[in-house]
Prior knowledge:
Layout: H1 19-32, H2 49-61, H3 65-78, E1 88-90, E2 93-96, E3 99-100, H4 101-105, H5 107-118, H6 121-139, E4 149-152, E5 158-163, H7 164-183, H8 189-204, E6 208-209, H9 215-224, H10 229-238, H11 240-243, E7 244-245, E8 249-250, E9 258-260, H12 261-273, H13 277-286, E10 300-302, E11 307-308, H14 315-329
Helix pairs in contact: 1-2, 1-14, 2-3, 2-5, 2-14, 5-6, 5-7, 6-7, 7-8, 7-9, 9-10, 9-12, 12-13, 12-14, 13-14
GO biological process, one term: carbohydrate metabolic process
InterPro entries: 6-hairpin_glycosidase_sf (IPR008928), 6hp_glycosidase-like_sf (IPR012341)
Organism: Janibacter alkaliphilus
Amino acid sequence: MSLPAEADYPGRGQGYPSWPQLVATGGYLAGVQQPDGSIPWEPGRHTDVWDHVECAMALTATGHREAADAAFAWMAAAQRPDGTWPIETVGAQVTDDGYDTNHCAYVAVGVWHHWLVTGDRAAAGAMLPVVTAALDTVVAQQLPGGGFAWAVDARGAAFDTGLLAGTSSIWHALDCGIRLAHLLDQDADRWVVARDRAGAAVRSGEGLAAKRRWSMDWYYPVLTGALRGPAGERRIDARWEDFVVPGLGARCVDDRPWVTGAETCELALALDALGRTDEARRLVSAVQHLRERDASYHTGLVYADATRWPIERSTWTAAAVVLAVDAIDRVTPGSGIFRDSGSPLS
């Protein structure tokens, strides 16, 4: 493969980021946060709850506690009576009134991560009703095969197709919810049943729509913990050359010359969970060509012509870098949020 000269990539060659650099990235995220506590994709863009939670986790990890607490307060205030959040809002205006089951479930991951990092039991207890309402609504959308209807539209009609990546992520959210309930002496049997059914569906692949072009469908079963061990190793190895571009990161889709920061760092998290930490570190180093001087990160690069695309510096990309480095370097007590998923409860 012939790549453009190194000088064509503004951040290329700066190597693996230091933790102080990523604390600065947390500061960038805090600066993008809106007065109500929500964290949009970038200033002036929309907010969705999954990416908001990812950013809240990065704020927690980097010690921006006030901003992190404001982010969780927004989730509690913005949750609807049915336990969901709109798919998309711009400021106070709802621009897509349906809900995405994976997005709604992810609050459990954020709250459990907050507890791991801070040890704040009172904060965990305050968020438990939010997590409970969200997970119970998501579990109600579980399909006969164990996957989850991926979304429900504004009229209440479910898109009754289970997605492999989405169901894998919900598996992780349920696992985190179970741990939170265990911590707070609450019953979680219904979530255990749903998690186990979802895990069986992910491992078999039956009844789940796979989007093989997209790298997320490749690594998400491993990232989330639904698939680990030798089966996880085989899954990663099987399509490594389809997605990984040496020295630049991981493709978002297998048929485009386009590497993206979030997918690269999520893949690094999956590798770390398999014990392949050196490979994970190399991937995070490779994608630092996306870092900007203000500590933000561009979403991706079309490397065939050295073009940033899309033209945005997405908050969730920055958050994914933070979480990957935390996992690899074991910086905070929450660094195992992905690595330890599915492990026995103490």
